[in-house]
From TrEMBL:
Catalytic activity: N-terminal L-alanyl-[ribosomal protein bS18] + acetyl-CoA = N-terminal N(alpha)-acetyl-L-alanyl-[ribosomal protein bS18] + CoA + H(+)
EC number, UniProt record: 2.3.1.266
Protein name: [Ribosomal protein bS18]-alanine N-acetyltransferase
Entry similarity comment: Belongs to the acetyltransferase family. RimI subfamily.
Organism this protein belongs to: Persephonella marina (strain DSM 14350 / EX-H1)
PROSITE patterns xref list: GNAT
Function of the protein: Acetylates the N-terminal alanine of ribosomal protein bS18.
PANTHER family, alphabetized: ACETYLTRANSFERASE, N-ACETYLTRANSFERASE DOMAIN-CONTAINING PROTEIN
Gene3D superfamilies the UniProt entry points to: 3.40.630.30
InterPro entries the record matches: AcTrfase_GNAT_prd, AcTrfase_RimI/Ard1, Acyl_CoA_acyltransferase, GNAT_dom, YpeA/RimI_acetyltransf
Compartment list: Cytoplasm
GO molecular function: protein-N-terminal-alanine acetyltransferase activity
GO cellular component: cytoplasm
Amino acid sequence: MDINIREFSESDLDEVRDIIHQNFKNPWSDRMILSANPFSYKTVAVLNNTIVGFLSGEIIYDEAHILMIAVDKNFQGRGVGKKLLIDFIDECISSGVNSVFLEVSESNKKAVRFYSDFGFYVYGIREKYYTTGEDAFLMKLNL
């Protein structure tokens, strides 16, 4: 699959919203998807002119934070998330980042395994982090 990663733009909103709604019980609002600050890093994965994945993160000096990775359900398990994450990690390395952080639902074993395969490890728990009352694993990658 020839997946290209490019910067997210406002014109991507409809496709990205659909992907997020496929993946999350409490999806981001349009305002959250579009929100940006000087540290924002948002990309989309594109296959045959169709958006199949989205990454939102922040790179703040020597630390970075992954806020979301979402892949179209029809393309999961085909390297889309991997390509988005590798692109983000490469950008972090070139920006002088030492550590990448994220939160993931402790019941999302698939995501925990995905991040662990890249060298992320659980370093803590945020109790009742999600609106469902579920805890979040705090994960970290040292670069």
